[in-house]
Automatic annotation (TrEMBL):
<dbReference type="Pfam" id="PF17862">
    <property type="entry name" value="AAA_lid_3"/>
</dbReference>
<keyword id="KW-0067">ATP-binding</keyword>
<dbReference type="GO" id="GO:0005524">
    <property type="term" value="F:ATP binding"/>
</dbReference>
<dbReference type="InterPro" id="IPR003959">
    <property type="entry name" value="ATPase_AAA_core"/>
</dbReference>
<feature type="domain" description="AAA+ ATPase">
    <location>
        <begin position="141"/>
        <end position="277"/>
    </location>
</feature>
<feature type="region of interest" description="Disordered">
    <location>
        <begin position="20"/>
        <end position="55"/>
    </location>
</feature>
<feature type="compositionally biased region" description="Basic and acidic residues">
    <location>
        <begin position="31"/>
        <end position="55"/>
    </location>
</feature>
<dbReference type="GO" id="GO:0005737">
    <property type="term" value="C:cytoplasm"/>
</dbReference>
<dbReference type="InterPro" id="IPR003593">
    <property type="entry name" value="AAA+_ATPase"/>
</dbReference>
<protein>
    <submittedName>
        <fullName>Fidgetin-like protein 1</fullName>
    </submittedName>
</protein>
<dbReference type="InterPro" id="IPR041569">
    <property type="entry name" value="AAA_lid_3"/>
</dbReference>
<keyword id="KW-0547">Nucleotide-binding</keyword>
<dbReference type="GO" id="GO:0016887">
    <property type="term" value="F:ATP hydrolysis activity"/>
</dbReference>
<dbReference type="InterPro" id="IPR050304">
    <property type="entry name" value="MT-severing_AAA_ATPase"/>
</dbReference>
<feature type="compositionally biased region" description="Acidic residues">
    <location>
        <begin position="20"/>
        <end position="30"/>
    </location>
</feature>
<keyword id="KW-0963">Cytoplasm</keyword>
<comment type="similarity">
    <text>Belongs to the AAA ATPase family.</text>
</comment>
Length: 380
């Protein structure tokens, strides 16, 4: 059956005719058409069809809870792999699935700044996944993305956002847990992880602290550590073979310089997630404060943004929380004995932030930043 998909890419209408088997694939094709049409309608209504991210906040979000149902996923994996699935490992791996339905979902607008990264991810993953007939060969989706940058700069947030938007299952694993939880079995866990990922795609395998797992090989490393690394290499290379698979291996690290170069090469896309610049900090503070009563003027927010040089997104959130709670921590004695009603809690003011700035300091040291920028410069 010939299926027509239309798709809007930066204001250009892309029409794609592709042959699909009548069995099984129909629903997915309808879903594609529906998503493409919804997006176009939204873009026309909103009147800014050339900006992909700004108007794509709520279209693809997952609302079906069965999407994260562990039993459903286990069944899918069993059907796909057959008797060879290691059930014990599979259950533990499925336990790492992040539920991105409801309030946990992340929209592109929730990720402030980082426009270059959003653009790269759009071209390297989103468009090829949505439209594999146009994006094949050299233009096929990246199978591996390495996000490196200082702590709290938004690496995990980007992963969750991509998964929310692509209706992808998001396996959120820290390398240290893989090492401690699975130790001797880690090799089997890695194999099972990729089997499940292929079975239930689209999938994002997100591994935080990837440096702990894929560090430079050394004389002292244990046998099983070596086997885990070999298994990763095999799986990553295996991923490259089917360009239509929608499985993304997303690694995040604060110390990319300690990753084995053989692994770094496997990440076709390597992105530096920097600390926010002053303009981004302004947007971020505004966004964080948007659901809290405050009397900050534009000028106040600009001032806070200027005074928070070197703060990460995470530091800014901590600062805003501190400022928002300042009054509550110091309820005046005159209110003793009275009921503390929301009405008598005053809006957050600039002074709350100025006090907060004395307590909440930047957490990323200059030394860490220098190492990261040096690594980044060497990549170019
Ligand atoms: N660019 C950003 N836009 C909006 N919020 C951000 C951004 N960066 C960080 N934050 C805030 O900081 C929190 C921590 O970010 P996140 O966990 O993504 O950082 P990270 O880079 O993964 O850090 P780590 O290296 O410690 O794992 C987020 O939940 C969010 O509240
Ligand atoms: Mg993180």
């Amino acid at each position: 059956m010939l299926v027509k998909r239309t798709y809007l890419f930066r204001g250009i209408e892309v029409v794609n005719l592709s042959e699909v088997s009548e069995e099984g694939e129909g629903d997915e094709e309808k879903e594609y058409e529906h998503r493409a049409t919804t997006r176009q309608d939204d873009e026309r209504n909103e009147g800014h069809g050339s900006d992909y991210h700004n108007n794509d906040t709520d279209i693809n979000l997952v609302t079906d809870v069965s999407y994260f149902d562990h039993e459903v996923i286990l069944n899918m994996a069993q059907n796909y792999v057959g008797g060879g699935l290691d059930m014990k490992c599979a259950k533990t791996i499925i336990g790492t699935l992040a539920d991105l339905t409801g309030s946990e979902r992340v929209a592109w607008d929730d990720v402030c700044g980082l426009q270059d990264i959003k653009d790269t991810i759009e071209v390297d993953v989103i468009l090829p996944w949505e439209n594999p007939d146009y994006f094949k060969g050299l233009r096929a989706a990246s199978k591996g993305i390495l996000l490196y940058g200082p702590p709290g700069s938004g690496k995990t947030l980007i992963g969750k956002c991509l998964a929310s938007q692509m209706k992808a299952r998001f396996f959120n694993i820290t390398a240290s847990s893989l090492i401690t939880k699975w130790a001797g079995e880690a090799e089997r866990a890695v194999k099972t992880l990729f089997q499940i990922a292929r079975a239930v795609q689209p999938t994002i395998i997100f591994i935080d602290e990837i440096d702990a797992l894929l560090s430079n090989r050394s004389e002292n490393e244990k046998q099983w550590e070596r086997r885990v690394k070999t298994e990763f290499l095999t799986e990553l290379d295996g991923c490259q073979s089917n360009s239509r698979d929608r499985v993304l291996f997303l690694g995040a690290t604060n110390i990319p310089q300690s990753i084995d170069p053989a692994f770094v090469r496997r990440f076709a896309t390597r992105l530096y997630v920097p600390l926010p610049k002053v303009d981004d900090r302004e947007v971020m503070i505004k966004r964080i404060m948007s659901d809290t009563d405050h009397s900050l003027s534009k000028g106040d927010i600009q001032l806070i943004a200027l005074e928070t040089e070197g703060y990460s997104g995470s530091d800014l959130r901590t600062l805003c929380k501190w400022a928002a709670k300042f009054f509550l921590r110091n309820v005046p004695r005159s209110l003793a004995g009275k009921v503390l009603l929301p009405e008598i809690v005053p809006p957050v003011v600039l002074d709350d932030f100025q006090k907060g700035l004395k307590v909440v300091k930047r957490t990323v040291s200059q030394e860490v930043l220098d190492q990261l920028t040096a690594y980044h410069a060497a990549q170019r």
